[in-house]
Specification:
Keywords: Plasmid. By secondary structure, the chain is α/β, with parallel strands linked by helices. The chain has eight helices and seven strands. It has a seven-stranded parallel β-sheet, with helices on both faces. The protein binds nicotinamide-adenine-dinucleotide. Nicotinamide-adenine-dinucleotide binds next to helix 1, helix 4 and helix 6.
C-alpha cells in the first residue's frame, strides 16, 4: 500500500464523480485533501464527508479557467496543509455535437475547461513546487478520447489529446526539478458526465433510449463492464505516491480494456 500519510493533495472537479471518489480514497489513506470544484456546495459536501470519516479536507470553490482563482486554491492548500505535493487536474466537461455542427463557441466552451484549465492548473502548481523545492506531482485526467477521436465528441476528444500533450511537454520541461506529470485515461465511467453524453446522443438522434449510448460504448471494454469512479482509485493512489517517482510523461489507460496503445 503506497504511503500517502500527510501528503498534501488538491483535486479539481472533486465535488462529484471520479474526482470525489479519488479524494475520499486518498483521504482515507491519510492524505490531506483540498476538494476544489466550480460548484462550491458539492465541494463542501465532499470535504464534510471526509472529515466525518476522520480525514483531513478543506473545500475551495474554483473555476479552473480563472488563473486568479486557481492561484487562490493552491495558496489556500498551502495555508491549510503546509505545502502542495500533488495536483490532480481532474475538472472537465463534455458536450455532444455532430462534427459539422460544432461552433466556435462550442469549441471554446469545451477546450477552455478541459485544456486551458489544465494548462493553468499545471503552471500554477509547478510554480509552487519550484518555490517549495523537493519536486511535486501533476496528475491530469485525460480520457480514452485523448487517444482516439470519437463522433459526436470531436471537440471533447481534441481537448483530451491536448491534456496528453501538456502532460508530455511538462514532463520534459520539469523533470530536472524532480516534478513529474502523468495522466489517467478513463473509459466509460458511470458519473453525471455520462448522463450528459448519453442525453447528447439521444438529442442528436444517434440513440433512442436512456443509457443506450453508455451501454454501447461500455460493451467495448474487454473486461465486460462499464467503469465505476472507484475503478480509477488504484491508479490515482499510485500516481500520488512515491511508488510512481520514476515515471513521467505517461498517460495510463484505465478503461477495462477499450483502447490499446
Ligand atoms: N465519466 C467518464 O466516462 C469519463 C471518461 C474519461 C474521462 N473523464 C474525465 O474525468 C474527469 C471527471 O469526470 P466525471 O465523469 O467525474 O464528471 P462529472 O461531471 O461527474 O464531474 C466533473 C466535476 O468537474 C466540475 N467542473 C466542471 N467545470 C469546472 C470548472 N470550470 N472548474 C472547476 N470545476 C469544474 C463539475 O462541477 C463536476 O463536479 C473529467 O475531466 C472527464 O472529462 C470522464
Amino acid at each position: 500500500m503506497p504511503d500517502l500519510k500527510d501528503r498534501c493533495i488538491a483535486i479539481t472537479g472533486a465535488g462529484r464523480g471520479i474526482g470525489a471518489a479519488i479524494a475520499r480514497a486518498l483521504a482515507a489513506d491519510g492524505a490531506r485533501l483540498t476538494i476544489a470544484d466550480i460548484t462550491g456546495e458539492d465541494a463542501r459536501q465532499v470535504a464534510d464527508a471526509i472529515r466525518a470519516e476522520g480525514g483531513t479536507a478543506i473545500a475551495v470553490a474554483v473555476d479552473v479557467r480563472d488563473r486568479a482563482a486557481v492561484r487562490r486554491m493552491i495558496d489556500e492548500t498551502v495555508k491549510a496543509h503546509g505545502r502542495l505535493d500533488v495536483l490532480f487536474n481532474n475538472a472537465g466537461i463534455a458536450q455532444t455535437k455532430p462534427f459539422l455542427d460544432i461552433t466556435e463557441e462550442d469549441w471554446h466552451t469545451v477546450t477552455d475547461v478541459n485544456a486551458l484549465g489544465v494548462l493553468i492548473g499545471m503552471q500554477e502548481a509547478i510554480k509552487t513546487f519550484r518555490a517549495q523545492g523537493g519536486g511535486g506531482k501533476i496528475v491530469n485526467t485525460a480520457s480514452i478520447a485523448g487517444k482516439q477521436g470519437y463522433e459526436p465528441l470531436a471537440h471533447y476528444s481534441a481537448s483530451k489529446f491536448a491534456v496528453v500533450a501538456l502532460t508530455q511537454a511538462a514532463a520534459r520541461a520539469f523533470g530536472k526539478d524532480g516534478i513529474t506529470a502523468n495522466a489517467i485515461c478513463p473509459g466509460v465511467v458511470a458519473t453525471p458526465m455520462w448522463k450528459i453524453i448519453d442525453q447528447g446522443f439521444r438529442d442528436t438522434g444517434l440513440t433512442r433510449t436512456e443509457n443506450e449510448a453508455f451501454d454501447m460504448f461500455a460493451a467495448g471494454a474487454v473486461l465486460g463492464r462499464p467503469s465505476a469512479p472507484e475503478d480509477l482509485v488504484g491508479v490515482a493512489r499510485f500516481l500520488a505516491s512515491s511508488d510512481s517517482d520514476f515515471m513521467t510523461g505517461q498517460s495510463l489507460m484505465v478503461d477495462g480494456g477499450m483502447v490499446f496503445v
